[in-house]
Predict the structure.
Amino acid sequence: MSVWTRITEAISALATGEGLSAVFDRLRSPPERSVAFTIAVIALGAKMAKADGLVTRDEVTAFREVFQISDGDTAGAARVFNLARQDVAGFEEYARRIADMFRDQPEMLCDLMEGLFHIAMADGTYHPNEDAFLVEVGEIFGMPAENFAALRARFVPDTSPLPHSVLGIAPGASLQEARDAWRKLVRANHPDVLVARGLPEEAVRMAEKRMIDINRAWETISGKAA
């Protein structure tokens, strides 16, 4: 059963008038957390689309890059997106419900933020309203400021992409500290680890770009030290 089939089943209650945000309360246990993760990215992405005032074709394409959506499941994905846009609940309510669901898995919240950054940058522009949106979501998620800065450094071209920021270490960290941070990130972002912690297989491809950035940061730091 595809994740989109399970999503369709999970939101079937919406036809009776139940709010989309209530769906999250039904998805607190594995393996349905992967469904919740997917809905969260789409729902918050739909809310974020309002931040800059329009939904572009590039942003729609970005969803398809994060999630492998087959032609048969496109309608289901679009339904979730449209329901999230139309729901009267603000994005803060969504973010709080998601933060509560994954409070014992902060790494999942980081994965979710990464998906939102990917969608925000899909049209090549990082709108100030998108930044304000993501900053507030990050605060609701309880994401440390340095972790948020590292994500923004990786995704936003105008942000100084300091390799230390990508690895989450201080600019004055030693080469050994940089190596240790790099190794820890490589282990944490192995595809098997991502799937084991509940990230849907459809979204594991996000880790491919993440690993490129992580390895490039280590190569930059180690190259300067050589």
Notes: The chain is about 65% helix and 0% strand. Residues 3-160 form one domain.
